[in-house]
Q: What sequence folds into this?
């Protein structure tokens, strides 16, 4: 069996799809955390950003945890 067929079978699993979406949410969360850290340490306090990085980081972390729980449930039921 070639690696493409193996990968296609693996990606057809529900828990893998949930896991990929959760990894994307974790990446958004880390990016939001980094941007919030940059905002807190900026040299010009009057340069206010227009995106709420704290909220983006929090809600993407929350979504990642919920999706990881769904992935765990799908993995255990598979």
A:
């Amino acid at each position: 069996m070639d690696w493409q067929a193996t990968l296609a079978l693996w990606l057809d699993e529900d828990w893998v799809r949930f896991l990929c979406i959760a990894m994307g949410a974790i990446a958004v969360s880390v990016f939001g955390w980094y941007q919030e850290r940059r905002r807190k340490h900026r040299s010009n306090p009057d340069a206010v950003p227009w995106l709420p990085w704290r909220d983006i980081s929090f809600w993407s972390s929350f979504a990642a945890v919920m999706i990881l729980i769904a992935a765990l449930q799908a993995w255990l039921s598979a």
